[in-house]
Amino acid sequence: MIWFAVKDVYKTVQPFVFILWLAGLAPYSSGGHQTLKTFRRCYEFLYFLLYLCLYSYALYMNLFVQNTSYLYTSIIVERLECMYGFFQYVSIVFSIACGWALNQRISMIMRMMHEFDLHLGCFGIPIDHRRWHFYVTMLAVGTFISFTSLLTVYVSYMVKSTSQVMPALSNIIPASLFAMCFLLQCGQFIVFLLVIEARFSRLNKTFRMYFPTSPSAIGGRNEFAICSEKEQINVLKQIKILHDKLNDVVELVNYCFSVQITFCVGLCFVIGVVCSFGLFRAFIYRNELFYMGVLNFVWYMYYLFFVLFFIAVGSKIAREGKRIGVLVHKAINCSTSEIVIRELNLFSQQLLHRSPVITCGLFVYDWTLWYTMIGATATYLIILIQFDVSFPNLVNVNATGAYRHST
Questions:
Q1: What angle do CA 383, 384, 385 make, to 5 degrees?
Q2: Which of 20, 148, 190, 213 is the most exposed place for a label (fewest CB within 10 A)?
């Protein structure tokens, strides 16, 4: 199997990058080789224009050609769905444009991680590229299978509940493209965060190999591999350099992807408000589109899973960054060499000033963001419910008229 021959980070991320390339979200190369610069830039620009035209046409079909009024019993939900589709398009185009404009920086991320792996393998625990290639492959395959399965169920119920109007492919394909691109943008961010988290974890384990972290381990060969003062200092200098390089990778990832992911978080928030409001109406009115409201909420939970995934990985990276600080102070308490203690104190100051944080500048991608999204969703849901209750005639009569017109 292919993952048993994986030897570097380029091959690790290749399965997901290939899917991104098919969807138009990867106008860059993940390989370590460099082609002719002029030819590569022309190819990337043509690639960008091709998918820009494709998604622009999909937006036109979604907003101006297809008729989806029969799917909603509320004008509020219908208008919010149109706004959501437009912002999805903006998010996709922005992601493709950023990939084209920042392709050299993205390639630099891969190159820096490859150099990190080479240096870490010389004295520490090497990265298991085969295992992470398998995980990335499973993420890509799982995303495609789960999306296809959920889309099949959704379309089946849509056909069953709206038998008067048979949805055409022009109704299904544009929305499906936008939804899949949303998942792929989240998946791209998740892949980069996973490979970064694996390297922070390996760096922490390498530190534990060379420095005792508990009083009972002093003098024990099982806790650390090198006891000589000179060797510990040399290894510590290498660890400090590698930790600094890994923080540079984190900053590059924040620079290249955080804005696109901010769009995805905002879209997920909009989906949460719309689908929660649709679920409320489904349970209150119990009309013929009850299951459609439930399925829309299932879609929201599916999207939310990907957002929670990269929030969890981002939080884990921050924890790994703090864990090495704890290990350093434990090593200070257990060390008897003044020179080693002085170097560890310098490393502690470096960790104080440079710790890994996944952020877009406005907020940090951690569990605090998740709690904020829940509170904001509840607030806007209450506002929409109040509008729905205050103007029942406007909402229900217009929606009923739209439904009868479509039939």
A1: 90
A2: 148
